[in-house]
Amino acid sequence: MAHGPRTPFDNKIVEWVDSRLPVFTMIQKEYGVFPTPKNFNYFWNFGALAMVMLIIMIMSGVVLAMHYTPNAAMAFSSVERITRDVNWGWFLRYLHMNGASMFFIAVYIHIYRGLYYGSYKQPRELLWIFGIIIFLLMMATAFMGYTLPWSQMSGWGATVITSLFSAIPVVGKTLVMWLWGGFSVDNPTLNRFFALHYLLPFIITAVVGLHVWALHVVGSNNPTGIDPKGPQDTLPFNPYYTIKDMFGLSVFLIVYAILVFYAPTLLTHQDHFVPFNPMVTPAHIVPEWYFLPFYAILRAITFDLNVYLLAAGALIGVLVYQYCWRKTPDARIAPHAPKLIAAAAIIGLPGFALAFLKDIEALKGIIDHIPLQGFHIMEAKLGGVLAMFGAILMLAVLPWLDRHPVRSGRYRPWFRIALGGFVVCAVILGYVGAQPAEQPWVAIGQLATLYYFAFFLVIVPWLSNNEPVAVLPNSIHEAVLAEKK
Amino acid sequence: MTDHSIPSHDVPADAARRDFLYLTTGAVAAVGAGVTGWTFVDSMNPAADTLALSTTEVNVSAIETGQAVLVTWQGKPVFVRRRTADEIQAAKDVDIATLRDPQADDARVQAGHEQWLVLVGICTHLGCVPLGTKQGEPKGDFGGWFCPCHGSHYDTAGRIRKGPAPKNLLVPPYAFSSDTVIKIG
Hints:
The structure holds two protein chains of two kinds. Chain A is mainly alpha-helical. Chain A is about 65% helix and about 0% strand. The longest helix of chain A has about 30 residues, at about 185-220. Chain B has a three-stranded antiparallel β-sheet with strand order 1-9-8, with no helix packed on it. Chain B is elongated, with a radius of gyration of 29 Å. Chain B starts with 14 loop residues before the first helix and ends with a strand. In chain B, about 30% of the residues are buried. The interface of A and B includes residues 282, 380 and 436 of A.
């Protein structure tokens, strides 16, 4: 890394090390004098906060592992023993348990920051993708960690999530047996989940290393989204942002401490304190809060994909491509657009009726006469799984869906409204995910899921071509001075 | 200037031999890596002792008509239900063309033992245990079972009627050892 000319250090020991391996030069370059845009707001704290949470999780996790027994017969009591008998065990457990929530809070705000200020855009696409990989690894780690206390929620959560893979055609069942190491979620499953739960954080650490490396190659984005043009636009990282991060960290840790000391089980379901019983499913299997929006998307697909919906979807896809993804629609297609819309509506109607209106008694007489209804392109189960993973894939491909030249949401009033709607939808999905699978929650979840995907596949591409390009300030410096007036 | 008689970009005389050695060595290494990798992957499959979990025998003489019991087979819950005449009739009366996973009632019970319904009690959606076996539990809109996780309804033959599950509840392999004992597995 730091291969350039090296300034000698005054301290002899530091100099001895640095002349052999220039770590001090690297720290000085990347965290001391590193030129950082001078206009960061507090949204820029959350990357550092997430990093601190990763360190706290690994440290508390290593100590907890010294007291934990990954065996189906003993896991639950070993966790109870940690809470009751091990010195400071209650503290370490609640630190780790609520740490997962705080980690996800930091990461969700960090992702929102990236969305709002366009941090995913050129040249930060790879940096962004590393971030999404970290997010996926975090979800896997959190899920397996939740299994370890071997409670009702642990065992049944593990059952529901591993069973997702049975939706994969042909190999699904074999794959799930391989994941379980048996015929159901049992001791072999717990053993391997513990091994992986211990391993994955170190892989996350490695990907965080790549994420930070990529960041230090292209430099940080900033609230204006304008690249720094010279020294008047930047500040050295130390002391300006070390101090700002420390302040943010103090506030963040106060919230964390309140959770750990005053409400350690606030975010945890009661069934997480009941030992796992493979013969009895709890009345409501609810994942941890940070998975709820994705769980709601999984459950939103309650219908099999029928031929009508597929055909109508293909027609709508053509229209979306022509009118949203392209700047101007193809001249050969444009004159036929009204016909295409009409065709999509006519073909889509029976599909919509089969998918959503089947349970309405009054319409039963009509719906039962729709032909080809036994013919399913894709079962609801696979559809739900694809939608859930697709929801995360959307984030990963966002740099290529959003081609608008302006980076920051500060100068994109239209995008800002669409993104606001996206956040509202995510919150609604989170709420729906915690509700039983009944109306009106199913319908609300379906509408929110529709907006979630429309945001990425329709609205953002359309805005890329149609949102007016604002006149941007000449530099960060100028933008900061303008704010002062 | 020195005179080099063989320029560096010239093809060596034994090129074919080198290519052969390169490809065969590579192929052997790839097969070796693949075989070794497979042992790692396959070690995660169910072990011999797990697979050896044998059959389960159930004495059904104590089950009254209209009642059901929950037994364990290969670590999985199994429902054994003694159906009433009405329940059997309801299961037979369904037009199977309207079912998501079309199957006649006859195909899900054994001839001569129509009152006995034996099912693996795992929802085909995401693996929860549906309610409806114990008295007082909700049996769903079709009098069979109801899965509380994502709202799948099963009828009195254990067939999926409503909700997200794609398949009927699985009928495990079983045989009547006598009139009152069922051997599952």
